[in-house]
TrEMBL record, chain A:
Pfam families: Skp1_POZ (PF03931). GO terms for biological process: ubiquitin-dependent protein catabolic process. It comes from the Eukaryota. Keywords: Nucleus. This is Elongin-C. Belongs to the SKP1 family. It is found in: Nucleus. The lineage of its organism: Eukaryota, Fungi, Dikarya, Ascomycota, Pezizomycotina. Its main location: nucleus. InterPro entries: ELC1, SKP1-like, SKP1/BTB/POZ_sf, Skp1_comp_POZ. Residues 7-70 form the SKP1 component POZ domain.
TrEMBL record, chain B:
Pfam families: Cullin, Cullin_AB, Cullin_Nedd8. GO terms for biological process: ubiquitin-dependent protein catabolic process. InterPro entries: Cullin (IPR045093), Cullin-like_AB (IPR059120), Cullin_homology (IPR016158), Cullin_homology_sf (IPR036317), Cullin_N (IPR001373), Cullin_neddylation_domain (IPR019559), Cullin_repeat-like_dom_sf (IPR016159), WH-like_DNA-bd_sf (IPR036388). Residues 366-388 are annotated as: Disordered. Keywords: Isopeptide bond, Ubl conjugation. One of its GO terms (molecular function) is ubiquitin protein ligase binding. This is Cullin family profile domain-containing protein. Belongs to the cullin family. Residues 448-697 form the Cullin family profile domain.
Length: 100, 831
């Protein structure tokens, strides 16, 4: 089994790439499984995930949230992250999709 | 939501979005994508697939409320895949040897073939299962959204569980063909077969079986995955346990017949360990307690009795000191029952048997010589008769000693067994108490126990401890006390001990007063103050007497009248008649004319000393009466024998012998005295006279007198003269006093002792009853009985009938009265 890289690449539907820490991305069980080498899907071998139904703006927010989550993993009483209202609905969809 | 979708989604989504009716078409195409992908997954070609794409497809379907359809399709797909492709592969591996052994019996295929075939099957099945697991894992991942949204909402089992169920139904549950077992049965049988081979010592691949068992553990009886519903528990384990039970039942029965108990124990233990190991390596941990229980049941619980009673069972082990094997038996039974009833019972039985043997041997030993020597017992002559006379006396004593020693040995032995084999100290009180109880039973079953124990102590006091270290003496005392502890009739023991102690003290037979005192203090600790009170009083008397003798010596030195008594020294023992069992010294014949003590005629010198002491004593303690017990006294005199090496000998002899010898002191050489003359001159009781003459004129080493005619027996009319030819190498000669030693009582004596003892007991019981009633005033009969029993238990175990009689007696004497109005028979104390 090849060694897990530290960073993985997430690509949005409009071809924006986000290189994020593997551990942060794996907050989403979906992404974790996509990248799980034991399943042997394409994503796992390239360490790259294409999201055809999430556009760049939303994916950026998602990545922000990943890091935000990672940073505040052990803390309590953290202020909610700031999301623009107009993206709310789309973010919700993405969150449902990624199960985060 | 629809607007959000359309605003954001890629081209692919937008199209179906627009025409909502086209969902069906969309499903079909999406499904085809998915299905191909699944097929790829199942054939291990997943690396070209995009997880995201599949996930997105499934996601879309579920989102459009077609989850149910998707779910159904996936299930169908899996069912088909398993049913056709996978199943075929597995069934192919079911080769002839495996199928044949179903009906026709195992002989057709050798074990080896069977094993290989079985392994092949197992390997294939394992492979399929693992593949299925992996694929379904991937499928589940891809269909996660469906699981998350559709299955939870519609209370369907997750697709993974569903597919596991499918595996079970398609692979395991479907019969191979009609009238044939399904694969699950085959699997079970093969695994059992393999385990059986393992038990028979063949090598199998535990890992292979383990993975199959693991599979069974992963599957459930129904789609509701309840924990205790595992296929493993439901189907395999049951059969496994059942088969094992049968196997071990047979094996146990065979082993019981064929091998000895030690081997059996070792075998059983090994089997249990093996099964434990097997569960760990081959099956699953959770079965281990169950199978161990089965083995225990079959090999131990149901066989324990047989095992213990085997020819080479516990009795054999005890006999041959096979401590290790006993330990095994102990361990085995401890496994199945912490109380170990069988072993306890067996041990008790063995002790009882061995104890009875010892008891019987002792009785036989003590009775046999009695019959033989009854005749010559009285008439001892030289040589032959001497051995004959000494022997029977000793034989009985020896029997007593042997009995005690054997009892002690028995006790030691079982203590050792307890310690070594049963680890009594920490683990098992029950067993050791049971053993102790049996010991007590054995000891109490022997009617002469008390006497023999006392004799044992007596013997040790006199001879045994002579050249022993303090520690050894200590050990001896401890042993004696140990046996004593078991004894119930402690009052009888007290009587005997008193008697024996008395003889020891008076005849100065005791080796060490220190040890005597130690013994008594030990008894005190063990049995309480009142028990040793009299013993202590005896010692006190001894000390007082010594003081008295010294006082008299001083007194005599000052009184002129006593001074001329030719340097006769008097050492006197004044004893309290209550505490000393002096009747022990009176022989049976003497007892007949009891009370009328014949007045002994003393030579003038002796008489003067005696009277002097009587005066001295009455000065000190007025109002006390002295009774002289000459039969217990002894004397040291100087005698001159011209032909002997040392012309002057110190002769140590009894008072009576002294009196006799003194008669000859003034006789001219060669003149004789007849038996009657001696009797008249001394007034010694006939029996004692005979015996003393016997030792003086018959016993070869102390033949100071010559008797005519030369015969063994002393008869009236015999004549005696001074033996001037007496020769001896030693200066100090001890005249053996016949029957001075402590020996076992004759029947008559015993009866007397018993009678006396019963009398004593009567008083004790009455005293106890009165004590209780005084306190309680009114008491029910049963309660009174139990209380009396407990009060007296440290002294002896009273007979219930005796207690009843005592109560009657007390009622007659109006200490108690019956309570007529009470519902249960009760008594009232009358002050």
């Amino acid at each position: 089994m090849n060694d897990l890289t530290e960073y993985v690449t997430l690509i949005s539907s409009d071809d924006f790439s986000y290189v994020v820490l593997r551990s942060t991305a794996c907050i989403s069980p979906i992404i974790r499984r996509m990248l799980d080498p034991s399943n042997g899907f394409m994503e796992a071998s390239t360490n790259t995930v294409h999201f055809d139904n999430i556009n760049g703006i939303v994916l950026e927010k998602v990545c922000e949230y990943f890091y935000y989550n990672e940073k505040n993993k052990d803390a309590k009483d953290v202020a909610d992250p700031d999301f623009p209202t107009e993206l709310c609905l789309e973010l919700l969809m993405a969150a449902d999709y990624l199960d985060v | 939501m629809a607007s959000a979708m359309s605003r954001r989604g890629g081209g692919k989504i937008r199209a179906p979005r627009r025409g909502l009716n086209g969902a069906d078409v969309d499903f079909q195409t999406t499904w085809i994508v998915l299905e191909t992908a699944f097929r790829e997954i199942h054939t291990k070609n997943a690396s070209a697939l995009s997880f995201e794409e599949l996930y997105r497809n499934a996601y879309k379907l579920v989102l459009k409320k077609q989850g149910e359809e998707l779910y159904k399709r996936v299930a169908e797909f899996e069912e088909q895949w398993l049913g056709s492709t996978v199943r075929k592969e597995i069934v192919q591996t079911l080769s002839a040897p495996l199928m044949v052994n179903e009906g026709a019996g195992r002989t057709l295929a050798t074990a080896n073939e069977r094993r290989q075939a079985g392994e092949k099957f197992l390997r294939r099945l394992k492979q399929s299962w693992e593949d299925h697991q992996v694929c379904m894992g991937m499928l589940t991942d891809v269909l996660m959204y469906m699981d998350r949204v559709y299955c939870t909402d519609h209370r369907q089992p997750s697709i993974f569980a569903k597919s596991m169920g499918l595996f079970r139904d398609q692979i395991l549950r479907t019969p191979l063909s009609q009238h044939q077992p399904n694969l699950l049965d085959v699997l079970t049988r093969i695994i059992l077969d393999q385990i059986q081979m393992d038990r028979d010592g063949e090598n199998i691949d535990p890992f292979l079986i383990k993975s199959n068992v693991y599979m069974l553990e992963g599957l459930y009886e129904s789609d509701v995955e309840a924990e205790d519903d595992k296929l493993y528990l439901k189907s395999f384990e049951l059969e496994f346990l059942q088969q094992s039970a049968e196997f071990y039942r047979e094996e146990g029965a065979r082993l019981l017949k064929e091998s000895d108990a030690g081997t059996y124990c070792r075998h059983a233990k090994r089997r249990i360990d093996e099964e434990n190991d097997r569960c760990r390596s081959t099956l699953t941990e959770s079965t281990s307690p169950k199978i161990v229980r089965v083995v225990e049941d079959e090999l131990i619980r149901n066989k324990m009795k047989g095992l213990i009673e085997m020819e080479s069972g516990v009795a054999f082990m005890v006999d041959n000191e096979k401590l290790h094997e006993l330990n095994l038996v102990f361990d085995l039974e401890a496994r199945v029952d912490p109380k170990k009833p069988e072993l306890t019972r067996a041990m008790q039985k063995i002790i009882a048997e061995m104890g009875t043997n010892i008891n019987n041997a002792a009785i036989a030993a003590s009775e046999a010589p009695q019959v033989q020597t009854e005749a010559p017992a009285a008439e001892e002559d030289d040589g032959k008769a001497r051995t004959a006379s000494v022997k029977p006396l000793n034989q009985q004593t020896a029997a007593a000693l042997k009995w005690v020693e054997e009892i002690l040995a028995l006790k030691d032995r079982f203590d050792n067994i307890c310690k070594e084999s049963f680890k009594t100290q920490s683990v098992d009180q029950a067993l050791s108490t049971a053993i102790n109880r049996s010991m007590a039973d054995v000891i109490n079953a022997f009617s002469r126990g008390s006497e023999y124990i006392s004799l044992f102590i007596d013997d040790n006091m006199k001879r045994g401890i002579k050249d022993k270290t303090e520690a050894e003496v200590d050990l001896m005392l401890e042993k004696a006390i140990m046996v004593l502890r078991y004894l119930q009739d402690k009052d009888i023991f007290e009587t005997y001990y008193k008697k024996h102690l008395c003889k020891r003290l008076l005849l100065k037979k005791s080796v060490s007063v220190e040890v005597e005192k130690q013994m008594i203090s030990r008894m005190k600790v063990e049995l309480g103050n009142s028990f040793t009170l009299k013993f202590e009083a005896m010692f006190k008397d001894m000390t007082l007497s010594e003081e008295l003798s010294n006082g008299y010596k001083k007194h005599a030195a000052g009184v002129a009248d006593l001074n001329d008594s030719k340097g006769i020294e008097l050492s006197i023992k004044v004893l309290t008649s209550m505490t000393w069992p002096l009747e022990a010294f009176r022989s049976g014949i003497e007892g007949d004319n009891d009370g009328i003590r014949p007045q002994i005629i003393y030579p003038p010198a002796i008489r003067r000393v005696k009277e002097g002491f009587e005066r001295f004593y009455s000065q000190k303690h007025s109002g006390r009466k002295l009774t002289w017990h000459n039969n217990m006294g002894d004397a040291l005199l100087k005698a001159r024998f011209p032909h002997s090496k040392a012309t002057v000998h110190d002769v140590e002899c009894s008072t009576y012998a002294m009196l006799i010898l003194l008669l000859f002191e003034d006789l001219p050489n060669g003149s004789t005295l007849s038996f009657e003359e001696i009797e008249a001159a001394t007034n010694i009781p006939l029996d004692d006279l005979k015996r003393n003459l016997q030792s003086l004129a018959v016993a070869p080493k102390t033949r100071f007198l010559v008797k005519t005619p030369m015969s063994r027996e002393i008869k009236p009319g015999d004549r005696f003269r001074y033996n001037e030819n007496f020769v001896s190498n030693v200066r100090r000669i001890r005249v053996g006093v016949v029957s001075a030693g402590n020996k076992v009582e004759g029947d008559r004596e015993r009866k007397e002792t018993e009678k006396k003892n019963n009398e004593d007991r009567k008083f004790q019981i009455e005293a106890a009853i009165v004590r209780i009633m005084k306190q309680r005033k009114e008491l029910a009969h049963a309660q009174l009985l139990t209380e009396t029993l407990t009060q007296l238990s440290h002294q002896f175990k009273p007979d219930v009938n005796m207690i009843k009689k005592r109560i009657e007696g007390l009622i007659e004497r109006e200490y108690l009265e019956r309570m007529d109005e009470a519902p249960v028979p009760s008594y009232r104390y009358l002050a």
